[in-house]
Amino acid sequence: MYSVKEAFYSLQGEGGQAGRASVFCRFSGCNLWSGREADRTAAACRFCDTDFRGTDGQNGGRFADAQALADHLVALWQGTSDGARPQVIFTGGEPLLQLDEALIEAMHEREFDIAVETNGTLAAPAGIDWLCVSPKGDTPLVQTRGDELKLVHPQPDAPPERFTELDFRHFFLQPMDTSPLGEARDTMAATVAYCLAHPRWRLSIQAHKIAGID
Q: How do the domains of the chain map onto residue ranges?
């Protein structure tokens, strides 16, 4: 059984695949925060701005097996057959609480590339085509290799230098968006300054917010 908060077709807005058309599958649940505001101050990830509770979002629901969910996600693809390979992005919450090899195989059978955005606290199953790890605070990092490490910045308990020597092809710093919490901090300037001083890191912005898309 898979629990999905929402699923939709859009453009990737962040990191190394920004701009790529994809089907997004947001799983319900996370291991770092319950999603309840009452629990935010005690959570390992206090700056999360995502609703991942329940299955009541756009195209959300519960799916009995991998084949049923794969068929559901394939039906959301809107791209034409122009030679580009379709992609599904599994996100959350924390997608590795639910994503398994059966679903990976089902999506590959349907000729989809598979991307995952994880907090890195759980080991990733085999077969993922693009793995993005986004560490949160001082939580232990289990997944220490992948395609990109995307660090929301600044986090006092997660300085960039802690991750620089890990086995990733790309390193991104993304300014923390504090607006959902009602805070008035300029995190963009701090992130730009760090990237200028440490060229190993590249700036990631949330282009989908600028473009006004989901």
A: 2-211
Give the CATH class of 2-211.
alpha beta
Stated pTM of the model: 0.93
Catalytic residue (choose from 14, 25, 45, 148): 45
Contact 166, 178 (CB under 8 A): no
Distance CA 123, CA 183 (A): 33
Catalytic residue (one of 117, 118, 147, 153): 117
Q: Under the phi-then-psi rule, with left for phi > 0, alpha for psi from -120 to 50, and beta for the rest, what region is 120?
A: left
The two tokens of residue 46 are 């206090």
pLDDT tens digits for range 169-193: 999 999 987 554 444 357 899 999 9
- Nearest Cα to 23, choosing from 83, 65, 71, 74? 74
**Cβ within 8 Å of residue 86, ≥6 positions away:** 21, 22, 23, 74, 77, 79, 111, 112, 113
